[in-house]
Design a protein that fits this description.
The protein is built from 3 helices and 24 strands. Helix 1 packs across helix 2. The chain is mostly beta strands. Helix 2 links the parallel strand 1 and strand 2.
Amino acid sequence: MVSTRLRLALVALVGMCTGQLIGFASAHGATICTDPSVTICRLWVSSSGSDSNSGLSADRPLRTLQRANDLLCQTRCSGIGKNVKVILASGTYPNATTVWSYSDRTYATQIVGQDVVMDGRHSTDWGLYIAPKNSRSNIQVFYIKWTRYLRGGVIIGGGGHNRIYRNTFYRLGSYYSKKPETPAYAGIYLFDNRDTSIERSVFVDILNSGSGYGLEHGVYITHSSYNRVTGSGFSNVGGDPIRLRDAANYNTISGNAFTNTGRKAYISDWRCVSSATKTCPGPDESLSWHNSFRDNVLRSPHPWHSSGFTARYCYDLPGPCPSLRIAG
């Protein structure tokens, strides 16, 4: 379960990383895509490119997605007033990790892969941390495979109106890294987020070993509302594939398939509440309400599942989870 302490640490990481990286970029003084005749700002990235390139043509690609973000942010991190398309060339990007903070309230920012594999090589925590400057961030991620990260694939912290389309999250967790002290948490982790759509994506082999088993999820939604998970497949996910937490309200999970996945349920709600035996790192968390879990194909729980497995589960209740919290 992702703790409030971890959330605060992640926020601190974003502030530290973006401050350092944007400062480095700004020292070079360049701006991009400011010509008003350019209606779409295109940046090219390749695993064989160089971050000293301009990135403005396919034959002068950048090497990292991080550099693409920094070039945009040194122009204007809250938006340059036009659509942005970052094109990732096919190939494997080893140890790739990015803190993406650029967004535009009005125009879309697309990160588009073409047979792209982001490979953490069991040495990198997360693949992509989206920490937008705007409450409406319009960030879209297409056709990327995220594999062998220690903690998970993609985090979206803050912002809204985002889209994750046809991404694959594969072999995440301590079962594969052989590092039981570093369990995975989720393929996608949303917090303080609103109106994000996760569509036609694949979550397969997300699994921890030892005491970490059950902490891993396909999609983890905490303190986030009006998000959607549709048309996606979940297979061999050790923990509950959909986890709600701390006022995760009005989220819709529909049209997905669940196979050999889930410890207690296919979808569950959990919150941290201090007690005589447990102290939460922050104030007691809230229940989640008005979520919908409908029209999914429910094939089988994970082979290591707990007794009493059910489709919907609320960890604070001994009996069925009320439909006012998770309808389905």
